[in-house]
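Severity: low
Component: inverse-folding endpoint
Summary: output formatting inconsistent between runs
Steps to reproduce: submit the following structure tokens with default settings.
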């Protein structure tokens, strides 16, 4: 028996068919399929930023018939295209035949939640949730005021805009159930961390230039359950004792993940200069590692007893951290099993498929490494500029670029491009999938990609 197992408890509220690669995990996925929230149209196909299993894997039921080829110019496999008002890089979340995403005006003074019909693309709700008198300027063009993705359950959608506010909406009416606007930090370059759900807790991450902390709030009432400050020694003070660059090196944008270690579930979160495991029910810090990077953006991945962590900008390290009952305190010198120091992305998240990790750099160089050792299997050029994180379905990895290309490669130990597709606009939002359809959010539109033959059979 493994001493540590990846047990994404959020799966109980999301999807089956998670795509784990051992017998125990397959049994777990089958048990998840029996959850009553999947009955009929209430099934949640893509409830979080990185899918139902929190691993960017498309569940088998949703992957069936998913096209690898499409073309906007000819209309091949493009079911619909809907213009979106405002800006945003949040990934669509999908369930019960509806799509939810966020958007904001370019200046950040208004922030919205969209709800669209997944079949037709019709806008069901375009709700203004927050007005901001004087948002802090982003100071760069990559981020937006609507980059965190929603978290979806059968009766609630949670929209998070960092320190500008967090809101729970009814999935039936889009009416506000509760909101919080009192949780503050200076994001400086804008918010990016998406909310996560564990049982009755909504987990939020704030890594600003002035404050850095995780917190859990009751998803029903919005009340604070716990809040834990980062224990990081940032090592960035100038001669006067002030953080250099106003604390710019303390920022991070990463979305956490969940893993069970020695019978207790931990929330694993990567911040600037450090990564940590916290007890999810209490917020108590269990372990940490030190690293020299900042702007961490990728959620963690878990392979057997290894947490695979991406440290962000700077050196752009990719770590494999051993998790078991001895993983406590500062484990930088004792539990880092491997550390890949070159050829890693800056913002696009690595994806674990089987025992391999696939990833793509900003400049379009893809690579495949062994999850247990960090050893490189192959490296080759896809091309393009990449911020969006990939997804995997039917043995393929989908990479989406800022130039508008979606490239599907084979998830194997040999580099192979299966298809290359072009849309008129580029993407920084990561893709989502549901019911054999691929949903792509470009800079100004939302696309539904569906196999034409499948669509005609449905009709």
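Observed output (run 2 of 3):
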């Amino acid at each position: 028996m493994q001493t540590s197992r990846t047990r994404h408890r959020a799966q109980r509220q999301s999807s089956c068919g998670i795509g784990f690669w051992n017998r125990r995990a397959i049994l777990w996925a089958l048990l998840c399929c029996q959850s009553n929230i999947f009955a009929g149209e209430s099934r949640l196909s893509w409830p979080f930023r990185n899918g139902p299993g929190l691993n960017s894997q498309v569940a088998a039921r949703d992957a069936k018939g998913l096209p690898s080829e499409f073309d906007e110019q000819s209309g091949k496999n493009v079911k619909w295209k809907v213009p979106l008002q405002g800006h945003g890089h949040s990934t669509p979340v999908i369930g019960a035949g509806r799509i939810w995403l966020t958007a904001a005006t370019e200046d950040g003074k208004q922030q919205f939640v969209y709800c669209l019909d997944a079949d037709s693309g019709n806008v069901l709700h375009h709700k203004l949730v927050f007005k901001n008198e004087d948002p802090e300027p982003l100071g760069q063009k990559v981020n937006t005021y609507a980059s965190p993705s929603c978290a979806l359950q059968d009766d609630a959608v949670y929209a998070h805009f960092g320190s500008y506010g967090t809101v729970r909406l009814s999935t039936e009416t889009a009416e506000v159930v509760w909101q919080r606007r009192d949780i503050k930090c200076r994001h400086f370059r804008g918010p990016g961390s998406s909310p996560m759900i564990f049982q009755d807790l909504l987990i939020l991450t704030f890594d600003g230039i002035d404050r850095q902390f995780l917190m859990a709030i009751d998803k029903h009432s919005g009340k604070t359950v716990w809040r834990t400050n980062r224990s990081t020694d940032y090592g960035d003070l100038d001669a006067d004792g002030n953080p250099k660059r106003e604390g710019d090196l303390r920022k991070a944008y990463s979305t956490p993940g969940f893993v069970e270690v020695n019978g207790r579930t931990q929330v694993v979160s990567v911040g600037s200069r450090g990564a940590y495991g916290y007890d999810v029910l209490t917020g108590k810090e269990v372990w940490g590692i030190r690293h020299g990077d900042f702007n961490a953006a990728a959620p963690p991945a878990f392979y057997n007893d290894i947490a695979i962590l991406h440290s962000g900008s700077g050196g752009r390290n990719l770590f494999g951290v051993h998790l078991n009952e001895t993983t406590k305190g500062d484990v930088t010198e004792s539990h880092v099993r491997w550390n890949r120091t070159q050829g890693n992305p800056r913002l696009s998240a690595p994806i674990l498929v089987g025992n391999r990790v696939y990833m793509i750099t900003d400049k379009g160089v893809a690579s495949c490494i062994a999850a247990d050792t960090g050893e490189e299997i192959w490296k080759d050029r896809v091309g393009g500029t990449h911020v969006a994180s990939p997804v995997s379905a039917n043995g393929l990895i989908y990479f989406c670029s800022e130039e508008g290309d979606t490239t599907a490669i084979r998830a194997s130990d040999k580099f192979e491009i299966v298809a290359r597709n072009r849309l008129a606009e580029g993407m920084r939002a990561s893709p989502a999938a549901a019911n054999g359809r691929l949903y792509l959010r470009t800079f100004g539109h939302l696309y539904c990609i569906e196999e034409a033959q499948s669509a005609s059979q449905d009709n």
